[in-house]
């Protein structure tokens, strides 16, 4: 019975970009006001992720006119149109509740540089994208035809370099 439930839940999961606590994200979500629907953007720092599968949630915190605002979103909610990762944060905690007491510059999170690879990213690169990783794989990687064109361009450059004599 448990396997059937897990299969049904896995079918409901949406592709979302990979992000972690400390990252600055923009969440585009649908708001219903009366009979109108509109997309609202909430940008802030992810202070926690909890749960797994279809029940996974994440909390985003931002400062709005000097007041701290936190909002918790279900990760796979149909109301979330898009999640953009604006910046990667470098933190050493899974829950960043300590940011609640900090104001201004003290509430900043160091930014992770492009050259810094985490152990999780290295493991994911080694293993490839499996069925479990498909739901959390980066969406920003581009489409398959674009990647194929880029790979063909690199291969063409390599073969052109081999054809030229070493002296010229």
UniProtKB/TrEMBL annotation:
Source organism (scientific name): Thermoleophilum album
InterPro entries, per database record: Ribosomal_bL19, Ribosomal_bL19_sf, Translation_prot_SH3-like_sf
UniProt xrefs under Gene3D superfamilies: 2.30.30.790
UniProt similarity note: Belongs to the bacterial ribosomal protein bL19 family.
Protein name, UniProt field: Large ribosomal subunit protein bL19
Record GO terms (molecular function): structural constituent of ribosome
Pfam families, alphabetized: Ribosomal_L19
GO CC terms: cytosolic large ribosomal subunit
